[in-house]
Design goal:
206 residues, alpha+beta, 2 domains, extended
Length: 206
């Protein structure tokens, strides 16, 4: 259950709720599997694992939540090929060129026809809300996926003034200095792997 990545956000003000109230509000945005015609679905699932029941796992002032995303795997090339075939049939049957608007409509029609038969992929992201300390920590390095978590929290809470923290020095620069010169803070422990990317080459050295 260790976080594999970390994207921190500051909370300038308290949320004004407790873990029980957070649980009740997340229940309004609980996860549901994609319908046959749905391309993706987002929602809250039990924080610890699928066998648990609580959407919020509280450990003192820290609350852990977990957002699940399901998305249909529908390659754009497959949709494009099917749409091209249908447009060619229309052009041949009616003896005219298919307009751009018609082509877009055909593409949407093909997408809706293929979605019920498409495979799906699921993933989850955990987040820890430290309301008293003024932090939200998200287990992701992706800005887009982290924003999904924050936006879903905003929908449930009505308001969430979370912002990225501002640092006096660039984190990448500081971490490089730690590796090259030492002086790592006591609260941080180095692992046994690193990805080194010199500015003079394009390929990374693991």
């Amino acid at each position: 259950m260790w976080f594999r990545a970390l994207r921190p956000y500051r909370l300038p003000s308290r949320l004004g709720i407790d873990a029980g109230e957070l649980e009740r509000r997340l229940q309004t945005r609980i996860f549901a599997n994609c319908t046959p015609a749905q391309a993706s679905s987002l929602g809250w699932v039990p924080a610890l694992d699928d066998a648990a029941s609580a959407l919020v796992h509280a450990a003192g002032p820290y609350w852990m939540v977990r957002l699940k995303r399901e998305e249909k795997l529908l390659p754009a090339t497959v949709v494009r090929e099917q749409a091209n075939e249908r447009c060619a049939q229309i052009a041949k049957a009616q003896g005219r060129k298919v307009s751009r608007r018609e082509r877009l409509a055909v593409t949407d029609e093909v997408t809706q026809d293929l979605l019920p038969r498409a495979f799906s992929r699921s993933s989850t992201i955990r987040a820890i809300i430290a309301d008293q300390a003024g932090w939200i920590w998200i287990d992701s390095s992706s800005a887009g996926r982290s924003e999904e978590v924050l936006n879903h929290l905003r929908e449930a809470l009505g308001n969430l003034p979370a912002v990225l923290p501002e640092t006096q020095k660039a984190p990448a620069h500081m971490m490089t200095q730690w590796l090259m010169q030492g002086g790592i803070p006591e609260a941080i422990e180095l692992g046994d792997e690193a990805l080194i990317l010199p500015t003079s080459v394009k390929r990374a050295v693991p």
